[in-house]
Amino acid sequence: MEIESALYEADLAQTLANRERLSANPNLMHWYGELYKEMFRQEADIATKTVLEIGSGTSPLKRFLPNVITSDVLKLDYLDIVFDCHEIGMLPDIADHSVDVITMTNVLHHLKDPLMFLRGATRKLAKGGRLYATEPYLSWLSYPMYKLLHHEPVDLNIRRPVLDTVQGPLSTSNQAMPHMIFFQRPDWLAELTDCYSLDKTRISYFTSLSYMATGGISKKFPVPGWAYKPYFELDRAMGRTLPKVFASFFTARLTSRDQV
Fold first, then answer.
1. What GO terms are given for molecular function (predicted)?
2. pLDDT digits (tens, 9 = 90+) for 198-255
3. Which of 14, 49, 80, 205 could form a disulfide with 243 if both were Cys (CB 3.0 to 4.6 A apart)?
4. What is the pLDDT of residues 31-69, one digit of tens each?
């Protein structure tokens, strides 16, 4: 995947700045910590498994799960591997069928070809290995916020789940792609039938406005932790109970077919 050098450098600098902001925002760190707990609830002994994270640039997963192998297309000195995840099937750094879990948070909608990546990822997953992707969910509440208040585009009119051009890892995206793959275009997901046991696919919903209440990466709202944490629990319950109305994020769990 070719990336324009000027935008690559800008995205690299932005990622480093975002990482500092995330570390300085305890409410946002709490949000991520709870996401990871929920995401890996069904993974027994996750701390002993081989876990590969895609798009680790800003993600704080390493702080919660020290055994994770971090990776990104950006050349960041704190990562374990730097590579274009579209080429994961040919990655020499990790043996084929040796990874128990692949995880990614808000990454799939930045990929030029998400289905190409998902197909290639099964080459690294062990028998029955699982891939977790957390992405924006377009509910009645979240859709207008993502569409009108967020800088990343939301295009539901695409004919294929691909980005026409890629200017930079962060600079280019379509927040609607993962939602369409998992909720609106079953024919797209069906293209992965030979790679994943789609009958084992599981979807969970995560929070309504509590991410926004942290200020996200760009801001830090002066909400004290003692007030934010109980609000988070209420907000999470709203997202789980009435996802089509309130949820802002979802996690898709895909299970790799047994490899020969």
1. methyltransferase activity
2. 999 999 999 999 999 999 887 778 899 999 999 999 999 999 999 999 999 999 999 9
3. 205
4. 999 999 999 999 999 999 999 999 999 889 999 999 999
Query: What is the rounded (10 degree) CA torsion for 11, 17, 23, 29?
Result: -40
Q: Which contacts of 16-20 are long-range, i.e. CB under 8 A and separated by 24 or more positions?
A: 16/76, 18/57, 18/58, 18/217, 19/57, 19/58
Q: Which two tokens stand for residue 91?
A: 């990655």
Residue 103 near residue 54, CB atoms below 8 Å: yes
Write a three-state SS string for 13-45: HHHHHHHHHHHCCHHHHHHHHHHHHHHCCCCCC
> Is 132 within 8 Å of 252 (Cβ atoms)?
yes
Distance, in Å, from the CA atom of 213 to the CA atom of 232, rounded to the nearest integer, reads 9
Task: Compute the distance between CA of residue 12 and CA of residue 76 in angstroms, rounded to an integer.
Answer: 8
Residue in this structure with the two tokens 């895909």, named with its chain if needed: 254
